[in-house]
Amino acid sequence: MATSHIERIELDELTCWRVRRHGAELLVTQQGAQLLSYQLDGEPPLIWLSEEAAYARGQSVRGGAPICWPWFGDLRRNPAAVQAQFQGDAAPAHGLVRAADWQLLGVEETDDVVILRFLFDTTKTPLAGWPHAARLHADIHLGDDLQLTLETHNLGGAPLAMSQALHSYFAVSDIHQARVEGLHGTRYIDTMDDWHEHAQNGDLTFSGETDRIYLDTPSRLSIVDPGWNRRIHLDARGSRSAVLWNPWIEKSGRLSQFASDAWQRMLCIETANVLEDALLIAPGEHCTLHLRLSSEPIAT
Ligand code: TA6
Description:
Layout: E1 4-11, E2 14-21, E3 24-29, E4 34-40, E5 67-68, H1 80-84, E6 103-109, E7 114-121, E8 134-142, E9 146-154, E10 160-162, E11 164-171, E12 179-181, E13 187-190, E14 196-199, E15 204-205, E16 210-215, E17 220-225, E18 230-237, E19 241-246, H2 248-252, E20 266-273, E21 279-281, E22 286-297
Antiparallel strand pairs: 1-2, 2-3, 3-4, 5-11, 6-7, 7-8, 8-9, 9-22, 10-21, 11-20, 12-15, 12-17, 13-14, 13-16, 16-19, 17-18, 18-22, 19-20
The chain binds 6-O-phosphono-beta-D-tagatofuranose (TA6).
6-O-phosphono-beta-D-tagatofuranose binds near residues 73 and 167.
Protein backbone atom coordinates (compact mmCIF):
# COMPACT_ATOMS: atom_id res chain seq x y z
CA MET A 1 0.00 0.00 0.00
CA ALA A 2 1.46 3.34 -0.99
CA THR A 3 2.01 5.53 2.08
CA SER A 4 2.93 8.80 0.42
CA HIS A 5 1.18 12.12 0.29
CA ILE A 6 1.75 14.32 -2.73
CA GLU A 7 0.21 17.75 -3.08
CA ARG A 8 0.53 20.62 -5.50
CA ILE A 9 0.83 24.00 -3.82
CA GLU A 10 1.30 27.54 -5.08
CA LEU A 11 4.04 29.58 -3.38
CA ASP A 12 3.60 33.15 -4.61
CA GLU A 13 4.29 32.90 -8.36
CA LEU A 14 5.58 29.34 -8.38
CA THR A 15 3.88 25.96 -8.66
CA CYS A 16 5.45 23.58 -6.19
CA TRP A 17 5.04 19.98 -5.13
CA ARG A 18 5.21 18.81 -1.52
CA VAL A 19 5.85 15.11 -1.00
CA ARG A 20 5.66 13.30 2.32
CA ARG A 21 6.72 9.66 2.65
CA HIS A 22 7.70 7.54 5.66
CA GLY A 23 8.63 10.52 7.85
CA ALA A 24 10.48 12.42 5.11
CA GLU A 25 9.29 15.58 3.39
CA LEU A 26 10.52 17.40 0.35
CA LEU A 27 9.46 20.46 -1.58
CA VAL A 28 10.16 20.98 -5.27
CA THR A 29 9.33 23.89 -7.56
CA GLN A 30 8.43 23.08 -11.14
CA GLN A 31 10.33 26.17 -12.30
CA GLY A 32 13.88 24.95 -12.72
CA ALA A 33 12.90 21.42 -11.56
CA GLN A 34 14.48 22.70 -8.36
CA LEU A 35 14.51 20.78 -5.12
CA LEU A 36 13.78 23.40 -2.45
CA SER A 37 13.93 21.50 0.81
CA TYR A 38 14.36 18.02 2.25
CA GLN A 39 13.84 17.07 5.89
CA LEU A 40 13.36 13.96 7.99
CA ASP A 41 10.80 14.14 10.80
CA GLY A 42 12.33 15.18 14.11
CA GLU A 43 15.61 16.32 12.51
CA PRO A 44 16.91 19.65 11.23
CA PRO A 45 16.58 20.02 7.43
CA LEU A 46 19.28 18.39 5.32
CA ILE A 47 18.73 20.74 2.39
CA TRP A 48 18.86 24.44 3.29
CA LEU A 49 16.26 26.93 2.01
CA SER A 50 16.81 30.64 2.61
CA GLU A 51 14.52 32.28 5.15
CA GLU A 52 14.39 35.11 2.62
CA ALA A 53 13.62 32.92 -0.38
CA ALA A 54 11.49 34.60 -3.05
CA TYR A 55 9.13 32.54 -5.21
CA ALA A 56 9.11 34.65 -8.38
CA ARG A 57 8.91 33.60 -12.02
CA GLY A 58 12.18 33.78 -13.90
CA GLN A 59 14.29 33.93 -10.73
CA SER A 60 16.05 31.00 -9.07
CA VAL A 61 14.98 30.40 -5.47
CA ARG A 62 17.92 30.76 -3.02
CA GLY A 63 18.58 27.35 -1.56
CA GLY A 64 17.69 23.79 -2.41
CA ALA A 65 19.52 22.37 -5.41
CA PRO A 66 19.38 24.66 -8.47
CA ILE A 67 20.35 23.03 -11.76
CA CYS A 68 23.31 24.78 -13.41
CA TRP A 69 23.25 23.87 -17.13
CA PRO A 70 24.58 24.08 -19.89
CA TRP A 71 27.38 25.79 -17.99
CA PHE A 72 28.40 26.30 -14.38
CA GLY A 73 29.26 29.68 -12.88
CA ASP A 74 30.72 32.46 -15.03
CA LEU A 75 30.70 31.27 -18.66
CA ARG A 76 34.00 33.12 -19.24
CA ARG A 77 35.68 30.80 -16.70
CA ASN A 78 34.55 27.71 -18.65
CA PRO A 79 36.56 25.79 -21.26
CA ALA A 80 36.57 27.49 -24.68
CA ALA A 81 34.43 24.71 -26.21
CA VAL A 82 31.70 25.36 -23.62
CA GLN A 83 31.89 29.11 -24.17
CA ALA A 84 31.62 28.66 -27.95
CA GLN A 85 28.20 27.01 -27.64
CA PHE A 86 26.66 30.32 -26.54
CA GLN A 87 26.10 33.09 -29.09
CA GLY A 88 24.14 35.47 -26.89
CA ASP A 89 25.23 38.78 -25.40
CA ALA A 90 25.15 38.52 -21.62
CA ALA A 91 25.65 34.99 -20.33
CA PRO A 92 23.79 34.55 -17.01
CA ALA A 93 25.62 32.91 -14.13
CA HIS A 94 25.00 29.15 -13.85
CA GLY A 95 23.49 28.65 -17.27
CA LEU A 96 20.04 29.00 -18.74
CA VAL A 97 17.63 26.56 -17.08
CA ARG A 98 17.66 27.05 -13.31
CA ALA A 99 14.73 29.50 -13.51
CA ALA A 100 13.18 28.23 -16.75
CA ASP A 101 9.78 26.63 -17.24
CA TRP A 102 10.28 22.87 -16.99
CA GLN A 103 7.49 20.40 -17.66
CA LEU A 104 6.36 17.91 -15.03
CA LEU A 105 6.25 14.61 -16.91
CA GLY A 106 4.67 12.81 -14.01
CA VAL A 107 4.76 11.56 -10.46
CA GLU A 108 5.42 7.83 -10.01
CA GLU A 109 4.59 6.21 -6.69
CA THR A 110 5.43 2.70 -5.52
CA ASP A 111 5.71 1.20 -2.06
CA ASP A 112 9.41 2.05 -2.06
CA VAL A 113 9.72 5.42 -3.74
CA VAL A 114 8.07 8.54 -5.07
CA ILE A 115 9.64 9.87 -8.26
CA LEU A 116 8.96 13.30 -9.74
CA ARG A 117 10.10 13.45 -13.35
CA PHE A 118 10.75 16.78 -15.07
CA LEU A 119 11.64 17.56 -18.69
CA PHE A 120 13.26 20.49 -20.45
CA ASP A 121 13.48 20.18 -24.25
CA THR A 122 15.34 22.93 -26.11
CA THR A 123 13.60 21.94 -29.35
CA LYS A 124 10.29 22.83 -27.69
CA THR A 125 11.52 25.68 -25.44
CA PRO A 126 14.42 27.34 -27.27
CA LEU A 127 17.16 28.91 -25.16
CA ALA A 128 18.10 32.40 -26.34
CA GLY A 129 21.70 32.44 -27.53
CA TRP A 130 22.12 28.68 -27.21
CA PRO A 131 20.83 27.18 -30.49
CA HIS A 132 21.40 23.47 -29.83
CA ALA A 133 19.00 20.54 -29.63
CA ALA A 134 19.08 18.81 -26.26
CA ARG A 135 16.61 17.09 -23.97
CA LEU A 136 17.07 17.29 -20.20
CA HIS A 137 15.44 14.92 -17.74
CA ALA A 138 15.58 15.77 -14.04
CA ASP A 139 14.29 13.12 -11.68
CA ILE A 140 13.84 13.43 -7.91
CA HIS A 141 13.52 10.09 -6.10
CA LEU A 142 12.27 10.13 -2.50
CA GLY A 143 12.74 6.74 -0.87
CA ASP A 144 14.77 5.81 2.19
CA ASP A 145 17.21 8.39 0.84
CA LEU A 146 16.96 11.19 -1.71
CA GLN A 147 18.34 10.78 -5.22
CA LEU A 148 18.69 13.47 -7.88
CA THR A 149 19.37 12.60 -11.49
CA LEU A 150 20.11 14.96 -14.38
CA GLU A 151 20.30 13.38 -17.81
CA THR A 152 21.31 15.26 -20.95
CA HIS A 153 20.47 13.80 -24.37
CA ASN A 154 22.22 15.44 -27.33
CA LEU A 155 19.55 15.57 -30.04
CA GLY A 156 21.75 17.56 -32.41
CA GLY A 157 24.08 16.55 -35.19
CA ALA A 158 27.21 18.02 -33.56
CA PRO A 159 29.03 17.27 -30.31
CA LEU A 160 27.69 19.21 -27.32
CA ALA A 161 30.28 20.84 -25.01
CA MET A 162 28.86 21.69 -21.60
CA SER A 163 29.50 21.99 -17.90
CA GLN A 164 26.91 21.46 -15.17
CA ALA A 165 26.26 21.23 -11.46
CA LEU A 166 23.60 20.35 -8.94
CA HIS A 167 24.13 23.46 -6.80
CA SER A 168 23.07 21.87 -3.53
CA TYR A 169 22.72 23.98 -0.37
CA PHE A 170 23.04 21.99 2.86
CA ALA A 171 21.87 23.05 6.32
CA VAL A 172 24.50 22.95 9.09
CA SER A 173 24.19 23.79 12.79
CA ASP A 174 27.25 26.10 12.67
CA ILE A 175 29.70 26.45 9.77
CA HIS A 176 32.52 27.02 12.30
CA GLN A 177 32.07 23.43 13.54
CA ALA A 178 31.25 21.71 10.25
CA ARG A 179 33.86 19.91 8.16
CA VAL A 180 33.91 18.00 4.88
CA GLU A 181 35.44 14.52 4.72
CA GLY A 182 36.71 12.86 1.55
CA LEU A 183 38.80 15.61 0.00
CA HIS A 184 42.23 14.87 1.51
CA GLY A 185 44.90 14.98 -1.21
CA THR A 186 42.43 16.25 -3.84
CA ARG A 187 43.49 19.07 -6.16
CA TYR A 188 41.41 22.22 -6.08
CA ILE A 189 41.21 25.59 -7.81
CA ASP A 190 40.85 28.33 -5.23
CA THR A 191 38.77 31.12 -6.76
CA MET A 192 39.64 33.22 -3.73
CA ASP A 193 43.36 32.88 -4.53
CA ASP A 194 43.27 34.04 -8.13
CA TRP A 195 42.25 30.59 -9.33
CA HIS A 196 45.55 29.05 -8.30
CA GLU A 197 45.72 25.27 -7.83
CA HIS A 198 46.30 23.73 -4.39
CA ALA A 199 46.01 20.31 -2.76
CA GLN A 200 43.63 19.66 0.12
CA ASN A 201 45.30 18.57 3.33
CA GLY A 202 42.95 16.67 5.60
CA ASP A 203 39.26 17.50 6.05
CA LEU A 204 38.00 20.86 4.81
CA THR A 205 37.04 23.27 7.59
CA PHE A 206 35.73 26.82 7.26
CA SER A 207 37.07 30.09 8.62
CA GLY A 208 36.30 32.55 5.83
CA GLU A 209 34.76 32.91 2.38
CA THR A 210 35.32 29.62 0.62
CA ASP A 211 34.81 29.07 -3.11
CA ARG A 212 36.83 26.10 -4.37
CA ILE A 213 36.56 23.77 -7.37
CA TYR A 214 37.82 20.30 -6.45
CA LEU A 215 38.94 18.00 -9.27
CA ASP A 216 39.26 14.21 -9.51
CA THR A 217 36.92 14.00 -6.54
CA PRO A 218 36.00 10.66 -4.96
CA SER A 219 32.45 9.41 -5.33
CA ARG A 220 31.62 10.07 -1.66
CA LEU A 221 31.94 13.35 0.22
CA SER A 222 30.48 13.78 3.69
CA ILE A 223 29.52 16.78 5.80
CA VAL A 224 30.28 16.19 9.47
CA ASP A 225 28.11 18.36 11.75
CA PRO A 226 28.92 17.88 15.45
CA GLY A 227 26.30 20.42 16.52
CA TRP A 228 23.53 18.25 15.11
CA ASN A 229 25.42 14.96 15.66
CA ARG A 230 25.00 14.23 11.96
CA ARG A 231 26.92 13.10 8.93
CA ILE A 232 25.38 13.87 5.52
CA HIS A 233 26.72 11.64 2.75
CA LEU A 234 26.82 12.76 -0.86
CA ASP A 235 27.35 9.81 -3.21
CA ALA A 236 27.88 10.95 -6.79
CA ARG A 237 27.98 9.14 -10.12
CA GLY A 238 28.87 10.79 -13.41
CA SER A 239 30.81 13.57 -11.67
CA ARG A 240 34.51 14.01 -10.95
CA SER A 241 34.39 17.63 -9.71
CA ALA A 242 32.74 19.43 -6.84
CA VAL A 243 32.39 23.07 -5.83
CA LEU A 244 32.62 23.93 -2.13
CA TRP A 245 31.14 27.31 -1.25
CA ASN A 246 30.37 29.40 1.76
CA PRO A 247 30.01 33.17 1.21
CA TRP A 248 30.98 34.11 4.82
CA ILE A 249 30.23 37.60 6.13
CA GLU A 250 31.10 40.15 3.46
CA LYS A 251 29.71 38.35 0.38
CA SER A 252 26.53 37.48 2.30
CA GLY A 253 25.73 41.19 2.23
CA ARG A 254 25.81 41.11 -1.59
CA LEU A 255 23.65 38.05 -2.13
CA SER A 256 19.96 38.18 -3.01
CA GLN A 257 17.45 36.31 -0.86
CA PHE A 258 20.10 35.80 1.83
CA ALA A 259 19.97 36.94 5.47
CA SER A 260 23.15 38.65 6.70
CA ASP A 261 23.90 35.81 9.15
CA ALA A 262 22.71 32.92 6.96
CA TRP A 263 26.31 32.00 6.08
CA GLN A 264 26.61 30.44 9.53
CA ARG A 265 23.88 27.87 8.79
CA MET A 266 24.61 26.71 5.24
CA LEU A 267 27.22 25.08 3.06
CA CYS A 268 27.16 24.36 -0.67
CA ILE A 269 28.66 21.17 -2.06
CA GLU A 270 27.90 21.23 -5.76
CA THR A 271 28.08 17.93 -7.59
CA ALA A 272 29.48 18.96 -10.93
CA ASN A 273 31.20 18.43 -14.25
CA VAL A 274 33.32 21.59 -14.54
CA LEU A 275 36.73 22.72 -15.91
CA GLU A 276 38.69 19.62 -16.98
CA ASP A 277 35.64 17.53 -15.99
CA ALA A 278 33.42 19.40 -18.49
CA LEU A 279 31.58 17.15 -20.94
CA LEU A 280 31.58 16.61 -24.69
CA ILE A 281 28.49 14.61 -25.66
CA ALA A 282 28.47 13.01 -29.11
CA PRO A 283 25.38 13.40 -31.31
CA GLY A 284 22.59 11.12 -30.10
CA GLU A 285 24.43 10.26 -26.88
CA HIS A 286 23.39 10.82 -23.25
CA CYS A 287 25.24 11.72 -20.08
CA THR A 288 23.83 11.37 -16.58
CA LEU A 289 24.75 13.11 -13.34
CA HIS A 290 23.49 11.33 -10.23
CA LEU A 291 23.56 12.32 -6.57
CA ARG A 292 22.35 10.24 -3.63
CA LEU A 293 21.87 12.00 -0.26
CA SER A 294 21.69 10.13 3.01
CA SER A 295 22.44 10.91 6.64
CA GLU A 296 23.31 9.13 9.86
CA PRO A 297 24.25 10.08 13.44
CA ILE A 298 27.96 10.62 14.04
CA ALA A 299 29.19 7.30 15.49
CA THR A 300 29.49 7.75 19.24
O1 TA6 B 1 28.95 27.88 -6.63
C1 TA6 B 1 29.60 28.97 -6.09
C2 TA6 B 1 29.11 30.21 -6.80
O2 TA6 B 1 29.58 30.27 -8.11
C3 TA6 B 1 29.56 31.39 -5.95
O3 TA6 B 1 30.67 32.05 -6.53
C4 TA6 B 1 28.30 32.25 -5.85
O4 TA6 B 1 28.22 33.11 -6.95
C5 TA6 B 1 27.25 31.15 -5.84
O5 TA6 B 1 27.68 30.26 -6.85
C6 TA6 B 1 25.82 31.61 -5.96
O6 TA6 B 1 25.59 32.15 -7.20
P1 TA6 B 1 24.12 32.81 -7.47
O7 TA6 B 1 24.15 33.25 -8.89
O8 TA6 B 1 23.10 31.74 -7.21
O9 TA6 B 1 24.00 33.93 -6.47
